[in-house]
Amino acid sequence: MKEYKTEQESFWSGDFGAEYIQRNKGSKLLASNLAFFVKALAGANIRGEAIEFGANIGMNLKALKLLYPMLDLYAIEINSQAAAELGNVISTNNIFQTSILEFTPERTWDLVFTKGVLIHINPNYLPQVYDALYHATGRYLLLCEYYNPSPISIEYRGHSNRLFKRDFCKEIINRHPDLELIDYGFVYRYDQNFPQDDINWFLMKKQGEPMNTSTLVTT
Length: 219
What we know:
Elements: H1 7-13, H2 15-23, H3 27-40, E1 49-53, H4 59-67, E2 72-76, H5 80-86, E3 95-96, E4 109-115, H6 126-136, E5 137-145, E6 152-156, E7 159-165, H7 168-175, E8 179-187, E9 199-206
Parallel strand pairs: 1-2, 1-4, 2-3, 4-5
Antiparallel strand pairs: 5-9, 6-7, 8-9
Helix pairs in contact: 3-4
């Protein structure tokens, strides 16, 4: 089995990550995701290409595909089983089957986003992930995560040190001040029509950076 930098990566690349697939699929989730992205991206003019950091089997990308049929979709996914199923949603050529901590963007995408992923990253490596998100962003960055004003760790399905809440938006903007917050919101788990798992979302726009949709740069 591959050795990773953190125990969180090993956790998601193995059996728990595969079990997650069964809990997070289906038409109800797709409907909720459609409603979610309509709201979260209302303030953006999306075109070109998008990449999701931590896509699992692509339920978020399925929704984006319906909303933006011309959008070329990419993904990063650590779990090999999830990545294989993801190939039914987007081109296998557009899938980076690797850890986010091992991903170095060599180009930019019009939209870069996470949804329930930063909360599972080892906090010591968040600055590295923030930099990867920033450098991958051509215009828009969307973070959809659990929010807390100060960093805390909570138990996750009987496991400790697997879920961390904090103000991800504030931290990445403090690190990269040319990211401008243009919209934000919250979706409640008990919404009667389109529930999400108490997610706060933050839409940012990168200032002064042209979109680059060229092929991967080699050096």
